[in-house]
Amino acid sequence: MNIQASSAGIGDNRAHWDERVDLACAFRWAVRYNMHEGVANHFSLAVSDDGSQFLLNPNATHFSRVRAGGLLLVDGNDTETMSRPNAPDETAWCLHGAIHRNVPEARCILHTHSKYALALACLEDSTLPPIDQNSMRYFNRVAIDDGFNGLGLDEEAERVSRTMRGGKPVLVMGNHGIMVVGPTVALAFDMLFYFERACETYITALSTGKPLRVASDDVAEKTARQWESYPNVAENHFFALRDILDEEEPDYRT
To answer: Which residues is 180 bridged to in the sheet?
Structure first.
């Protein structure tokens, strides 16, 4: 894949159309699943081999209004990006740009402040214990960042990008939110959805004040591996979501 992008957000907004449609679908379903904060938070998808060129939601656009053709195509190496009229949100540019630039295998990056994952990020111990098969999916596959130092700008963005280099698909950002990365939109969104569900179960279980039923490490790892080898889990989920939008919100494709 050899792509030329002369400037951020400028050019043919029909390029990378399949990728645009998938990413727009993820935005719309983040709203339906209540994993959004209005016009805040950002999803991105790399479209160049080195990850430096990526699709990103436009500034101040509500997740429920994101369309495939409205996504910005930006270049993480273009220092003039933020001086242009259609510049993305500054935190999105810094944080997603740093991760795509420094972790090229992180093709799709989904960052939210979803309710239950954020609650987990606010606990002194942000470990998600293996108490059900959803939480077991993430056993030993979650990184925890306890170094929060303000909004994701400048050095904070670079620091966060360094925490993503451990090969784990989920980052719990202490005092901040959640970051999920994956090779495709479908896989990243499926991971985001089930992580939020797992966090909801955990926070709800904690609220009872009763002892937790925690699985052994062996069972948790076995279950995680079964999740990873189960055929087409993410694709089947995401294709179903896309089919629903095609019937109910077809404008996401425009």
So the answer is: 110, 170
109 φ, ψ to 5°?
Answer: -125, 120
In a domain, 3, yes or no: no
The number of folded domains in the chain is 1
- Residue by residue, pLDDT tens for the chain (254 residues) are 333 333 444 445 778 999 999 999 999 999 999 999 999 999 999 999 999 999 999 999 999 999 999 999 999 888 899 998 889 999 899 999 999 988 989 999 999 999 999 999 999 999 999 999 999 999 999 999 998 887 777 788 889 888 887 789 999 999 999 999 999 999 999 999 999 999 999 999 999 999 999 999 999 999 999 999 999 999 999 999 999 999 999 999 99
Give SS3 for 245: helix
Residue 9 lies in a domain: no
Model pTM score? 0.93
Look at the block and give the residue holding tokens 């499926």: 190
Q: What are phi and psi of 110, to 5 degrees?
A: -115, 120
| Count of other CB atoms within 10 angstroms of residue 83 | 8
Strand ordering across the sheet containing 170-173: 72-75, 53-56, 42-46, 108-112, 177-182, 170-173, 142-145
CATH number at residue 60: 3.40.225.10
Supply 11's token pair: 């050019």
Alpha carbons 31 and 68: distance in angstroms, whole number:
16
Q: How far is residue 146's CA from residue 126's CA, in Å, rounded to a whole number?
A: 9
Residue 93 covered by a domain: yes
- Domain of residue 236: give its range: 17-253
Reported in sequence order, the residue ranges of 137-193 that DSSP labels E, i.e. its strands, are 142-145, 170-173, 177-182
Residue 118 forms part of a structural domain: yes
